[in-house]
Structure formats: C-alpha cells, structure tokens
Amino acid sequence: MSRFWSRIVHTLEPYVPGEQPRVANLLKLNTNESPYGPSPRALEAIGAAASDDLRLYPDPSSLALREAIGASFGLSAGEVFVGNGSDEVLAHVFQALLNHERPLLFPDITYAFYPTYARLFGIPYETVALDEGFRVRVEDYRRPCGAIILTNPNAPTGIALPLTAIRRLLEDHPDQPVVIDEAYVDFGAESAAGLIRDHPNLLVVQTFSKSRSLAGLRVGFALGQRGLIEALERVKDSFNSYPLGRPAQAGALAAWQDRDWFEHHTALTVAARDELSVALGGLGFGVLPSRANFLFARHPARAGADLARALRERAILVRHFARPRIADFLRITVGTPAECERLVEALREILARDA
C-alpha cells in the first residue's frame, strides 16, 4: 500500500490467475492451456514476422486477420474486433457496452474476471445462481438488467448451453447487450455466431489461446453487428491503437487458416477428455458433463483442497477454487493421453493411501 494509490486502487480485488511455477517434471493441468504446440504454419509465420519490419508499427486494424475470421462466419471485417487476448476484448466490452445504471447479470459460478472488471469499471452487477446440477437456467435471467454475460461452455463447470437457450435469452432481452464468452466453444459446444445476423444485441467473444494453442501470443476477438464492434473500436483507439504486434497478427492469421491442424488437435483433446472423464468416474469421482478442454470433478470422500495439495506434492497442478458450492471440486485441464494417465495413476495412489 502506498499513499500515492488512487481511490479505485484501494478498492480493487484483482483476479488471481492459475500459478505458473518453474518446477522440474511439472505436469501443468491448471490453466486450460493446450498440451499440443501451435500449428507449424503459425510458428513459421511468427518467425517470418520477426524481421527488420519490427521497427515499424503493425496494422492498427489487423485487417487481414479480421477479414479471415469474418469470412469463416459469414461476416465482414467490420463485424470483427481483435484484441490482445480475449481478456482485453472483454475489458473493452465492459467499458463500451455495459450500462452503468442497471446491473450486469452473470452466474454465481463462472469466470472470476467478471466481478473484477465490474468493480474496476464501476458497473453494478448481480449474480444468478446455477441450478443444483450447476447449469445455467435462462429463465432465471428474466429480470431487469443492463446486460448479460455468459461463458459458454461455462467455466469452471464445462457445461454448455444449447443454441435454443441462447436464442431464448436474446429474445427475452432485445434491448440489452448479451455477451457470450466462447473461450472453450471449439471442444464440442455450439457457437452463437450464427445468431448475430438476427440479433443486434449479441456479441460473441473467442480466443486463440485454447483450441489454437496460442495462449502465449495473446490474441482474442469479438463478433457482432457493426454498432457493437464500432463501440469496441472507439474504446480501443482511446486506449491502445496497436494491441496486436506484427508477429501476433501473422501467427494468428496462419493458425486460423490451418484448418486441418485445428480439427485434428481439437479432436485429440475431445477424445482425451472423454477418456479421462471415464477414468475419473472409475475412481469414484463425480464429473460434470464437459464440452470444454477441462473437467470439473469432485470425490465424495475427499476434500478438494486436500486432493489438490497431494497432487502438487507429486508435481501435478490442477485448479482448486476455495469458493462456496465448489470448494470440493477440482478443475482439471485435459492433457495428452500420457499426461492424463499420469494424473489418474497419481489419484489412484492418493486415494489408496488415504483409504
């Protein structure tokens, strides 16, 4: 604490990301990173962009990347916004589109950055409880609000809403922005991007960090009708006109265009996820039905914190949230089949030791 802090700094409760320790032989299953390296085409493009041209500013609009993304969804470049990771995109969303007079709605169990952003930007918010099965019920959102934001599939539960539910939510709130955060959508959920043409209040946010293995490059994007995207551009250009450097734009474009790599590696992750879910069930865990690249699981006879600690002693990191309703759950990133096997064997040993 310093006497030079502003009033808002004193009131902040910063988001706490998953730890990134430097430990030998560490199995890192705590931050939902891909276990596979990026597309070779992306790596080649990044290397080529690391040239003498780095002395020049990048394209402030990332036009080539926006055109490529838009074409995949039947949208124009003007209906695509890109930023320095989806977290920056979301920060601009909170500044540009959310009503500061009426509350923002989001689930009580969801991405923990939402309340952090709301406090940072002075946006009132209310949480809406997930049901007993940890699912979003869109009928619970039929109340006065300024906007709604949902992660789909939800994090940390991994449970996805069908498009019919999202369409119903949009129709219930035609005068409020509805933001669907699709960080994990590529692992088996339905994207809401196809609803954009009929719903001017819909904004869809995605990332290159998960299904395209580029968490270290920091590229995210939003899709929506021109009015919403223009609002994001106005905030961006009042904050940082050059959010994506030349290597980031080149790498993201090449990764987006390498559809074969994307489809192959998402299929590998989905298969490993489903196999891991069965293996955890065989150890007595209750596992929520995931459409993400992670599982949310709890053991009926073991505290989540104790299991996370025992795994850490074996150089295996998983994510534990000491929060109401989910304190006994572990969020486990899906690794390679060999990494998943190492996790299962460690859990088997821990459960046998404590039996």
Automatic annotation (TrEMBL):
Q: What catalytic activity does the UniProt entry give for this protein?
A: L-histidinol phosphate + 2-oxoglutarate = 3-(imidazol-4-yl)-2-oxopropyl phosphate + L-glutamate
Which Pfam families does this UniProt record tie to the protein?
Aminotran_1_2
Q: Which cofactor does it need?
A: pyridoxal 5'-phosphate
Q: What is its EC number?
A: 2.6.1.9
Which Gene Ontology terms describe the biological processes this protein takes part in? Answer: L-histidine biosynthetic process
This protein's pathway: Amino-acid biosynthesis; L-histidine biosynthesis; L-histidine from 5-phospho-alpha-D-ribose 1-diphosphate: step 7/9
- The question of whether Amino-acid biosynthesis is a record keyword is answered with yes
Q: Which PANTHER family match?
A: HISTIDINOL-PHOSPHATE AMINOTRANSFERASE, HISTIDINOL-PHOSPHATE AMINOTRANSFERASE 2
Report the protein name in the record.
Histidinol-phosphate aminotransferase
Please give the organism. Answer: Aureimonas ureilytica
- The coding gene here is hisC
